[in-house]
Amino acid sequence: xxxxxxxxxVLLGLVPIALMIALWQGLVSFGFAPVALLPPPGFVFTxxxxxxxxxxxxQEIAATLIRLFGGFLIAVVLGVSVGIAAAASPAINAxxxxxxxxxxxxxxxxxxxxxxxxxxxxxxxxxTLVAADALFPILLSTYYGASTVEQKxxxxxxxxxxxxxxxxFKVVLPAAMPSILTGCRIGLVISCIVVFLAEMITSTDGLxxxxxxxxxxxxxxxxxxxxxxxxxxxxxxxxxLQAARSYLLRGFPEA
Amino acid sequence: MIxxxxxxRRIAPLLACIGLLAAWQVAALALKxxxxxxxxxxxxxxxxxxxxxxxxxxxxxxxxxxxIGFAAAVAVSIPLxxxxxxxxxxAAFFNPLLMVIYPVPKAALMPIIMxxxxxxxxxxxxxxxxxxxxxxxxHSFEGAKAVEEKMLWSGAAMGLSAAQRLIRIxxPAALPEILTGCRTGLVLALITMITSEMIARQSGAGNILFNALDMGQYDTVFAMIIIVGxxxxxxxxxxxxxxxxxxxxxxxxxxMPLSFS
Lengths: 255, 261
Known about the structure:
The complex is a heterodimer of chains A (about 260) and B (about 260). Chain A has helices at about 1-30, 40-55, 55-90, 90-105, 110-120, 125-145, 150-160, 165-200, 205-215, 220-250. Chain A is mainly α and about 260 residues long. Chain B contains ten helices and no strands. Chain B has about 260 residues and is an all-alpha fold. In chain B, α2 packs across α10. Residues about 255-260 of chain B have low confidence and may be disordered. Chains A and B meet through α1, α3, α4, α5 and α6 of A and α1, α4, α5, α8 and α9 of B.
């Protein structure tokens, strides 16, 4: 019964995507859009499969992935540690809170020219930008999760004789885990977006660069390919994170 | 009478700003790099940009596009998100589509949209609209999903129609969450605005920023970074005030640091 409901949901969810592709095909077949501007979907997807098999395109994907993971991992490590520290210590909180309030709403893309000038045109500047953009959602949700840990849990752990240091790892971190993972999910999507944009602005490789080259030469087909690729990458990474979440949160009621 | 802690809370962000600018100043003096002006030099270039009539018109045009895109996105996304949160079928219908669209950088659609709509205002506003709508839909969805069933049942028992329940119970109950989404959307609107103008170099704040970068006018680059940053912080602070007023009843204890001692 449950599985039938689920498969109904999946079918229903495929409808808008199928409709979109049908509309796309329709626009092309009935001549509303010239093929040069809007290539038919079949053409785009065969091109995508073709490209995925070439080693050149695989290298572009690898370059994008290195930057994405580099930045995202830095953001996770920094965000979780600073978030927990800020929740645990009032002194750190007093310093971190105003800085975060100023830096979080800052559009980080505007910092990219500065990063370029300081760190050069290679991986470093892009990884820094990704880390800067993914950091704040992770930091804020870690802080939120850690500061709403039930005081009773901490008291019971202390009553049971857990040393103060270990409370952080044994009580606070696991209790804040759902919130941290929600932050990571947002941070991951942001990383996908930012790495692509950074590669579009200045780069010699990566998916964003592929799009820019295609746009400059008006190859509409090749413009769709990197966009679909980044969307697929996002979906795959999201699914992986979801798997990690259900592993890490086994035993939690809402997981 | 304002309490000392309230004063502290108010000036702390200001102190943080000054601290960051000071750190920048020190770093620039230490590095002595031609392409990295000091904070003071960059700030001196700010009035020159704001005084220039053309630049000012450009920046105002950017803000106008952003406001239109943001308003349109909020107007569409909140009802959609609420419906998704209350109806399983609607959620199942839209969720996969949104999941596919989410990781695509909206500004990266610029080159394609430009092919159809040109480089004008419509293309840029559309991109901002797309960028803002996803977080607002997502948060409205989460907010509407978490509404207590009992309240809806009592509403139904008292004779509210489905539409009335949506407006009078679900909307207010989900409002804190919706506003969180709007706040994220606001920052995203600014980001999308800058990047769309960077790609379609025709007008706007992003155009000034990246043209200055290409021409090596580093003072202007850093001054524009200050201006855009100030826009982000200012808009966020203004929105925070509106939010605090709208959902005064549900102030979360987010501001209460929990100490383990």
